[in-house]
Design a protein that fits this description.
With 622 residues, this protein is an alpha/beta fold. The chain has three domains: 2-153, Rossmann fold, CATH 3.40.50; 175-287, 2-Layer Sandwich (Transcription Regulator spoIIAA), CATH 3.30.750; 289-558 and 594-610, no CATH class.
């Protein structure tokens, strides 16, 4: 019997790893074919250690940016050891139009374009690949493209990867797992920075799995104690029926205690239905927060990339609803889109703050993928897009081997934002995320803005100028550390910040900076007082900074704040009614035993829930 291997390499986060859903779905489909089952022994590879192959007839690899480079290294080794093995790759990272691909990767025999279930069955049962649609074939280094004809199968013809037992043996391994949950395929939108609804993928039309099948899969997830579930739909909540899946997940959670978390990509324009979904998930501790995303607030950028945003009025209304229910929210923004400038991006971030988004703003660096329209020569030329490929250092993991790490391609310059302006924009973004969204100066900035003393943009630019002009200060040294890291990114180095007192994990730049400031918190706030000395009355500024420091969760510290009329006014402003007293304190419960434990629980696990700040209800009058 011939051996065939299906590979979908994944990265660990702690002890958790994704079940290889993509190749699992293909295996469940081809296993319906008796000829394949009778003639081939099927193997799954998804871990990067202890790989052993036995005379493979075929090697199938599912690739995307997080495993492409490693997969190519592995494929090259397999081809060298087993030259007669046919190496086939598929997935979103397979380029639709790249006639030099086989020149660069001569050890690859076939590329699969589009969905793989039917095509892989045809590859295993056909003598001539040239008659199979949607392939690129390596013929002595030249690319032979077969007929393009996307005749995707009825999704309900694909047996469930979970219910058919494909993963039964994998579950015996000593790991925690993340399962992918797919209720539909396709995306009706055409954002040019994304390859999901790209014209090249033929995935514009939504196609649905049978609801009862998805219910059974959710039941399987609970019974098998799957920790995390990632919904693979492009726009979860785009139809009202998606609420039924939320109800089923909650029902299963109540019965089995699993899953622990459920995360999805919600419909582009969040609405009341998605609010109700998040409300239910939050009630059962299944969600870390709700997404209210824009990607950009610059109208010209939105038009250039084909994005459709919700109105700011609707955004403000939803923020208030989520806040009232104590559900954390986060807003995603992309840095480096066409037509964006330093001012438009900085103004966009401050607009989010003006409309109530203080929980979390997540800034992504604009990526270019093989099959998004942004990668086309015409689009690149139109906006003079300059990109760099950098190592994709995963956050919140220990980087053990930098030699074979995968890569991402990010935008570092356009015709409206040159390389220096990109650096300035990154630094302003860093300031907003570090000082505001992670709480170091959030209360100070909010009061000063709402009292019409200084707006957010002026506040954070003033702070950045102080750092720039005081390189030996705590804030200044961190400023130049981060600036140099961004400069290294422009040279091809990845986003890496290891903060040794807090362990060996890799942090985002703003998280690493927050942890650095926490260790020097007294010096930090003294410098902030000096930076802001000329903007308001000394007593007001002193009280604001003391209050901000009081509300911050600093490891192994008891929070105590003297009471005065200014402090009472601040508390009242944030809705906390109290009487005049001697002082306020917070009995902090340090449920961590080291700085590394603090960083993991407060920043990694707790960032979206705002765990770096105390709750107002924790404050006690003394």
């Amino acid at each position: 019997m011939n051996n065939i291997y299906f590979c979908q390499f994944s990265n660990f986060v702690g002890n958790n790893v994704y079940l290889p859903y993509s190749v699992g779905s293909i295996i469940s489909y081809i296993s319906k074919n008796k000829d394949i089952v009778d003639n081939y022994k099927i193997h799954i590879i998804f871990l990067k250690e202890n790989i052993k192959l036995n005379n493979p007839k075929f090697l199938f690899l599912s690739v995307y940016m997080w495993n492409f480079k490693y997969s190519m290294i592995f494929a090259k080794q397999v081809k060298k050891e087993f030259p007669n093995c046919k190496v086939v790759i598929g997935g979103h990272h397979v380029p639709y139009f790249d006639h030099n691909f086989f020149y660069e990767y001569p050890f690859i025999d076939v590329l699969v374009h589009g969905e793989g279930e039917k095509i892989c069955e045809e590859i295993l049962t056909s003598e001539c690949f040239y008659n199979i649609h949607n392939l690129s074939i390596n013929k002595l280094g030249k690319t032979i493209r077969t007929k393009k004809h996307y005749n995707n199968c009825d999704l309900n013809e694909i047996p469930s990867v979970y219910l058919s037992g494909v993963f039964d043996e994998l579950l015996k391994l000593p790991y925690s797992f993340t399962a992918s949950l797919e209720t539909n395929r396709g995306c009706p939108y055409g954002c040019k920075y994304c390859d999901w609804g790209s014209n090249m993928t033929s995935q514009k039309k939504l196609r649905f799995f049978d609801k009862e099948r998805v219910y059974k899969e959710i039941e399987w997830i609970g019974k098998n104690k799957i920790d995390f579930v990632f919904g693979t739909d492009s726009n979860f909540g785009i139809i009202k029926g998606d609420m039924d899946y939320i109800n089923k997940i909650i029902e299963v959670k109540k019965e089995y205690g699993f899953p622990n978390k459920f995360r999805v990509c919600y419909a582009k324009n969040s609405d009341d239905l998605i609010f109700e979904m998040n409300k239910k998930l939050n009630e059962y501790n299944l969600s870390k927060g709700a997404t209210l995303s824009f990607q950009s607030l610059n109208d010209e950028s939105i038009k250039a990339v084909g994005r459709i945003n919700m109105s700011l009025a609707k955004f403000k209304e939803l923020i208030k609803k989520y806040d009232n229910e104590k559900i954390p929210t986060y807003t995603e923004i992309i840095l480096g889109l066409p037509k964006e400038t330093y001012d438009s991006f900085a103004d966009g971030l401050c607009t989010l703050l003006d409309h109530g988004q203080h929980s979390s703003i997540v800034v992504y660096y604009c990526q270019v993928y093989p099959n998004n329209e942004m990668n086309s020569p015409e689009f690149r030329k139109k906006y003079n897009i300059e990109t760099i490929k950098i190592p994709m250092f995963p956050t919140h993991t220990i980087i053990k081997d930098k030699r074979n790490i995968d890569e991402e391609e990010i935008v570092i310059s356009t015709n409206t934002m040159n390389r220096n302006e990109w650096l300035d924009t990154c630094m302003f973004s860093w300031a907003i995320q570090t000082f505001h969204c992670l709480g170091l100066l959030q209360f100070t900035a909010r009061i000063l803005k709402e009292k019409n003393i200084i707006n957010y943009k002026e506040f954070y630019e003033k702070l950045l100028n102080f750092a720039k002009n005081n390189p030996n200060s705590v804030v200044g040294m961190e400023y130049y550390k981060i600036l140099n890291k961004y400069k290294k990114v422009q040279e091809g180095y990845g986003f890496e910040y290891i903060n040794n007192p807090f362990g060996k994990l890799n942090w985002t730049f703003e998280e690493g900076s927050f942890l650095t400031f926490i260790l020097q918190i007294n010096e930090f706030y003294l410098e902030i007082s000096a930076a802001l000395v000329d903007i308001t009355d000394d007593e007001i500024l002193k009280s604001l900074i003391n209050f901000n420091k009081f509300m911050l969760k600093v490891p192994f510290r008891t929070s105590k704040l003297p009471c005065n009329l200014i402090i009472l006014d601040i508390l009242k402003h944030f809705g906390y009614e109290c009487n005049e007293c001697n002082y306020f304190d917070i009995k902090q419960k340090d449920d961590y035993n080291s700085l590394a434990d603090y960083a993991t629980k407060v920043i990694w696990y707790g960032r979206k829930g705002g765990e770096f700040l105390h709750r107002f209800e924790e404050i006690k009058e003394r």
